[in-house]
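Escalated from tier 1: adenosine-5'-triphosphate holo job.
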Amino acid sequence: MPELVLELNGRTWTLDPSRSYTLGRDPQGDLVIDDARVSWRHATISWNGRGWAIEDHGSTNGTYVQGQRVQQTELGAGSAVHLGNATDGPRLSLSAAAGAYSAPAAAPQQAAAAQQGWQQQPQAPVQQPHAPQQAPQQGWQQPPAQVPAQQGGPRPQGASPVHGDRSPTTFHQFSLGRVMRIGRALENELVVSDLQVSRLHAEFTATPDGRFEIRDLGSHNGTYVNGQPIAKSSTVLIGAGDIVGVGHSTFRLVGDRLEEFVDTGEVSFSARHLTVTVDGGKQILRDVSFGVPEKSLIGVIGPSGSGKSTLLKALTGYRPANQGDVLYDNRSLYKQFAELRQRIGLVPQDDILHKELTVRKALKYAAKLRFPADTTEAEREARIGEVLRELKLDIHKDKKVTALSGGQRKRVSVALELLTKPSLIFLDEPTSGLDPGMDRDVMQLLRGLADDGRTVLVVTHSVAELGLCDKLLVMAPGGSVAYFGPPEEALNFFGYTTWADVFSAFENYRDYDWAGRWKGSQHYQMYAADLDAVAPQAVNMPPPQQIRPPKPQSWGSQLFTLIRRYVSVIASDKGFMALMLVLPAVLGAVSLVIDPDKGLLVNVNEQTGRIIPNGTATTVLLILVVGACFAGAANSVRELIKERVIYERERATGLSRSAYLMSKVIVLGLITVIQGGLVGAIGFATRELPSEGLVLGSMVMLELSLPIMALGFTSMMFGLIISALVKTAEKTMPLLVMFAIIQVVFTGCLFILHGTVGVNEFSYLMPSRWAVAAAGTTLDFNRINPNTDDPGSTDPLWDHDAAAWGIDMTALLALGALCGVLVARFLRRHEPEVMRK
Ligand SMILES: Nc1ncnc2c1ncn2[C@@H]1O[C@H](COP(=O)(O)OP(=O)(O)OP(=O)(O)O)[C@@H](O)[C@H]1O
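Tier 2 regenerated the structure:
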């Protein structure tokens, strides 16, 4: 095979045709060219079977042969190539090798290069793919060869890079007229061992007329073509260059072969010109660009309000930037959000765990919600075991999350995100509130995660362990970049000895042009200039229906899991359970002290035949109604706010809003209805009641208790509204008290509402009004509590007939349903922006 000798800056390499060579500023590349005009991964030189060729990887400043910018061209002895500039960019001269290729010959050159400061990757043994065997009768073939996905591996002829300059992991050969099914199950022609993939996920068909199709087989996590999801069970034609995504794998057609790329996490990541503008035109993130190679840990620091959280939201797509792009493995995150979102893990500042559960249970429910419905319990358990071992949590797995230290708890949050093997992990202040030892522990954990083949970005306030990061991004007031580069050079860059000084400078010179200082620096030239050279572009996200996350589980299955998890959480909190019983019992019992010997019947003066108002009945009903209102609302008022962070994260991973809400309504509804029953049973048990009800005949006590139970339910729904509206849990208590007092006022027991224009109509919005009315129809409230100001006038809501009882109950429950609709709307406000559909 013909070798080529490459000469650059007076040094020479004998190129081996069995591998390719990456050129660029990336220290991990084969030929490292430290020139700002050269891109991080600029180009690759490889033997294509016929000759040597150079291929540009979309470099900013271009690759030039004979003064012409080239994308891909063949090279021969005597060729000269300039990188970054046609005339004075670094020049590669190529000449024929003197003798036949011999592997040892390369070694001394490598050693020499290393001594001279040139970094070359050790020449890892690379398996050359064998010529694929054509076996049409057998249909699809298993891969003829496994090629390690690493830089510098051989690339098949004619293929252009899809994922940076990574090489395909595997090739699959196929023949016309055959079908190749992809899935997790062993019976597929192409088995993908990835829990994100359904057992029978999709199938490629090579039609007899030479076209190729991909058909989704009703997969849980979706099949994607060029980052866009295809409809469930639909078929789409694919052509050369189209990328089909299935779980962590992507496939591309090259001739009659299918190249498979498996995302093992070792992918590059960059942000270009990210700018976020809020209503009113104010920019809160300004032109942020940075990029890192695979396996990087990036620290982000900056003073309060410098846009760190905004940046995190832009990078994760939670709140996409208005301008710029985020490139994941050279693919646009925004354009291909539907597919790439599944590769992102986000650990918010607050723990995304139910603290009452044990570590294992918390992970079990998370896995059940995030993995496709067709994963078995054993598969999920196995993955949980792997993650627990990886994060050294297996000894704590049966402990409740509350019993763990802050650092361990953070580990569990990370473990939860790692379940689905994300390649990019973002953490928002994971060490806030931790002592210095735990801070180090968490940062070392992140270092390990990056080293194991992931890109990890951590926003932090703690500067003690920044040295563990590969790169540091310092944000300046106003949301612009003040520095990006190695952490050890950062203080020097700012000219201070401590970070406290740097932050003081940010504070004292808020209007200083920190971004201008950064852009005028050498560090900028070295670490960000080439990313910035691409013109900023406006963000055009696909329509919301295309970026909706797939629902790995059906609605019913999500609901079932959520109910089980919620019941587990409640069951593990014995104090709460006891309170739920004691509260209605006490509220019911206090009504017994009110004129204990008096009943709830109409008082008629036997001599005169006139009706005497029965104050005991109105007071008892008032107390029971207030008890039910209070118990119902108190159950739910903290429910959504305390789980908001968990909800936000789970919503981004495909949780259904309505399934979530319904799980709360069912569990809390059941609890409040039982509590209402208890309040009614205690309150009415010792009282003299009418002998016949209007609807349930002799079951008068039940007929009277049903409005109390329904009131408990509707009050619980009001509580959920409060919980969905407030920003902090502390605000719920005053609102709960306010709600209960308003209910007292509008019961109709304290003053006559009927006939008071405006007030009466307003009272129709109050659940207590309808509950008192429904019980009042049975007790005949128009006679128990007659309108003395306007004798003879009666309240139609209190009419002593079954129809009035039915209307009152319907109105009460309809109010509850209306609250449900409102809660769903308010919940939407707390979802990642891309989820608000
Ligand atoms: N939706 C919005 N509308 C208007 N201004 C906003 C909005 N979101 C954030 N801001 C403002 O943008 C700036 C950056 O906010 P951001 O939360 O990203 O800062 P931060 O660096 O994360 O701060 P901290 O360290 O305090 O969390 C702040 O001044 C904030 O008030």
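Residues 4-96 form a domain with the Tumour Suppressor Smad4 fold (CATH 2.60.200.20).
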